[in-house]
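Handout, section 3.2

Students often ask what a structure token actually looks like in practice. Rather than define it abstractly, here is a full record for Sequence orphan. The first block is the sequence as you would receive it.
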Amino acid sequence: MSVKECRGIDSDIAHPETLKSEQSPFSGSTSARSGLATAVDIGRLGEEAGRAVTMSRDAARAAVPAIPIPTTKSDKQWNTRSLGLRFAADAASAAVAGALICPIITIIDRAIIEKASKGISIRHTLTTCLRDMVRKPAGFFLSTPFILIYTLYGGTYLTANAIDTVTSTVRNQPFGTVTPGMEKFLTTTIVNMSICVYKDARFAKLFGPSNNPSAQCHPSAPAVTVAATGASSSAAAATAAKIASQVPKIPKVSYALFCLRDSVTIFASFNIPPLIAPSVPDWIASTPGMKAAVAQFSCPALMQFVSTPMHLLGLDLYNRQPPGGLGWRERLLRIRRDYIVSSFARMGKIVPAYGVGGVVNVRMRAALMEKLQLDDERKHIASSRTL
């Protein structure tokens, strides 16, 4: 090695920074880039750690159910808008439906009782009472039988409508909502049964075996005849007391049978039709309205094959009360004798009552409630615009 080369090595050893700068002119920029990459990596690690913490927090929230915070104010709201008008619509629908079907029901009901108690043909009673209704309409529509029948069916319709209105109010539903719930069945049955049992007891006494078979549809006529003959008031009172003492009491079993009969009829009239209406085949009824009408007509009518024996047995227990009682074989023979004709006669009574009357009541109420709903919405929109 020459002297010059040795001097060069000594110079490099003495000044190493000069050697580094000459060997790596871009060493400064490389260090900067490596530092920037390290910072980026740290940032990415921080983001991933943050996402992991967020995911663990969400999982913990999903695993622990939220505890509801009690509030002092209830969120439940009642639909009380136009409530008075809605009850008025219920009463109007019931009144119109009752006035439409009660005349024929009064006549049919009397014909069934006279057939069971006196053996008078149903046709004879129908023609006699229809003729009296046409000739003396005031006496017919103000008579006790008609008032009893009108109170029975008008009250039943009104109760069913009122239950629908109360239910729609409490549940915050539209005005025309119809419910087939158990509360409707129980309330309607109690009202119908209470009035109907009283009505049957009065009819049994008015048209039972102790009365004159030729009496007209106005049971007060015999008293007027007695007064017209010039009999004294004391004699009339004695005659009335004698007749009253001869009228037998209605057995408790008869009341129980009448209650069971009415429960079956009410259930078939108000609760079953809304449930089976959607199942009516399309070849019988193609629209929802027709399906509802078919169910409303058929259910109460077909149920009479079940309830008519209860009705006939209750009447027979009242009509025939011989000393020592009467065997069940004799009573079953009487029921068998009158079963077919009485079943169809009761269908002729129930179809107008819960078929025609039920459809008129339901559709009239639906129309009135729809009108009230539209009027209420218009008022609500107008009031919101003014605000």
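Discussion prompt for tutorial groups: The two ends are 107 Å apart (CA to CA). How would you have guessed this from the sequence alone?
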